[in-house]
Amino acid sequence: MSATIVSTFGKILHVEFEPGLRWYTSIGTTFHSVDLRVKDMNIAGSSCPDSHGSPLSVSCIVTYSVSDPVKSEYHVKNP
Q1: How far apart, in whole angstroms, are the C-alpha atoms of residue 4 and residue 21?
Q2: Which residues contact 38 (CB under 8 A, 6 or more apart)?
């Protein structure tokens, strides 16, 4: 599942969620494809001591999905 952001000269025209054949002028038109599937990211673990001094391995898995393709493509702080 993906969405395509259609923009002309930097202005967003609309977002296409459905596949299909469409016609656009090629002058100044750009297409950005955004993946909307559920993704997961494995954060590497680190070892830290517990209250008894035994090493404890800590790691996590982050599961996320994109709900707004325009915000995920244009309104990010660290791309």
Answers
A1: 13
A2: 63, 64, 65
